Amino acid sequence: MKTTKAAKSTPVKPVAKKAAKKAAQKATAASGKATGVAKKATATIKKAAASKKAAPAKTVAKKAAPAKTAASKKAAPAKTVAKKVAPAQAAPKKAIVESHAALVRRARRINRELAEVYPYAHPELDFENPFQLVIATVLSAQTTDLRVNQTTPGLFAKYPTPEDLAAANPEEVEEILRPTGFFRAKTKSVIGLSKALAEDFGGEVPGRLEDLVKLPGVGRKTAFVVLGNAFGRPGITVDTHFGRLVRRWQWTDETDPDKVEAAVGALFPKSEWTMLSHHVIFHGRRICHARKPACGACPIAPLCPAYGEGETDPEKARKLLKYEKGGFPGQRLNPPQSYLDAGGIPAPPLGAG
Prior knowledge:
The chain has about 350 residues and is mainly α. The chain has helices at about 1-10, 10-85, 100-115, 130-140, 145-160, 160-165, 170-175, 185-200, 210, 220-230, 240-250, 255-265, 275-285, 315-320, 335-340.
């Protein structure tokens, strides 16, 4: 009986051992996984801890950056001040809103003020007769009146009449006119103009606008110079100075010379047109310059909407004045006596030191 029980019980032990072994293996695998998870968790914690330790360094860097920003903020106002100061020398043009009647009053007051400043205003081209004036005016394109005045004495000494100049050798005329620039085109114009005068007008300069503008090289500007100063017939001369100033004064915003002439002419009696032209051109050459207007020395500053475009300091502005206003020679070799009486100085002849 004992032997039978032993035989029956012996197979149970290997099964239990196998089960125990499998359980042990599972427990080992589970513990291994747990260990792996624990290792990963530990690594994650270490990384987090490392990042937390590193973070203050970035924060410090960020906190340190404002120190530079503060310095830049302190430095910034200097640039801002510079930007604010600059416009004082070139203030934007103030738009004037005024009725037509108010514009007429302001424009005429400006002309009256200029008449007091330039009572000796005159055409700044030397001439003795209408022929010399029309030739000199044609030659004044793209050059100064001074250069023309220094050149025409030699021209008129050799060719005193339209007939003489009409028959001239072009090469000889070109050589005389060389100092005025564009001498070939100007030679063609003055010889053609002289031929037209000799053939169509009996050698005389016509006194009508419609006849003058038919002559080679003669436009409305040249025609009005001749009509106003050689024939005493009113006309507005729209040269670069005139156009620049009337736009600065907001008499008109037109740029086409014919439209400027019409717009400005409507503001004044016709009898004032010629002297108005002289006053404005004189002022443009002496004080209200294109690039550096002497605003601080301008007698009509309170009436000018463009005040501040140029130098406003009186002492600095006085140094910008030209011709007799600045104590320098004028443009005419033979100026009117009234100009000399006012302190004007004659221009030197060509080649004078």
